C-alpha cells in the first residue's frame, strides 16, 4: 500500500475538480476526462435498472440542463476513499435536481493518473 495518503489526495482531486465539477457544469469534456474510455455505469434510478456505456452517459449529460443552469441545489460529497496500490473504491453522494445519488466508483491508476473505470449509482432519500 505505497503512498496511500498521496493517492487519496490525488483521487480527491479527480473527484472534486473533475468529476463533481464536470457534472455540475454539464461539461462533458471535463467529466469524460475523469473516466477510462471503457467505463460502464450500472445501478437504478427511480427504482428502474440503469446501465450505460460511458459514451451514452456523456451524451445524456450533454443533452440535459446542467445542475449549474437549473438553479436547483447541487452538492458533491466524498463519503470515503479506500486505495490499495493502483486500485481504489470511492463512495460519493451527489445532490442534484430532485435526486440524492449514492455513487460507488471503482478507480484504477493508469500511467500515473487515477481514472474511474466503473460507476454504480442509485438514488436515495438521504
From TrEMBL:
* Gene3D superfamilies from the UniProt entry: 3.10.450.50
> What Pfam families does its record include?
Lumazine_bd_2 (PF12893)
Protein name as annotated:
Nuclear transport factor 2 family protein
List the top taxonomic levels of the source: Bacteria, Pseudomonadati, Bacteroidota, Cytophagia, Cytophagales
Amino acid at each position: 500500500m505505497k503512498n496511500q495518503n498521496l493517492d487519496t489526495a490525488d483521487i480527491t482531486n479527480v473527484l472534486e475538480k473533475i468529476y463533481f465539477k464536470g457534472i455540475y457544469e454539464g461539461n462533458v469534456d471535463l467529466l469524460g476526462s475523469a473516466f477510462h474510455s471503457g467505463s460502464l455505469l450500472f445501478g437504478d434510478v427511480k427504482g428502474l435498472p440503469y446501465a450505460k456505456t460511458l459514451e451514452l452517459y456523456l451524451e445524456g449529460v450533454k443533452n440535459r440542463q446542467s445542475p449549474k443552469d437549473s438553479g436547483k441545489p447541487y452538492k458533491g460529497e466524498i463519503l470515503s476513499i479506500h486505495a490499495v496500490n493502483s486500485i481504489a473504491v470511492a463512495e460519493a453522494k451527489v445532490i442534484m435536481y430532485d435526486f440524492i445519488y449514492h455513487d460507488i466508483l471503482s478507480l484504477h491508476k493508469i500511467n500515473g493518473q487515477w481514472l474511474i473505470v466503473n460507476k454504480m449509482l442509485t438514488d436515495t432519500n438521504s
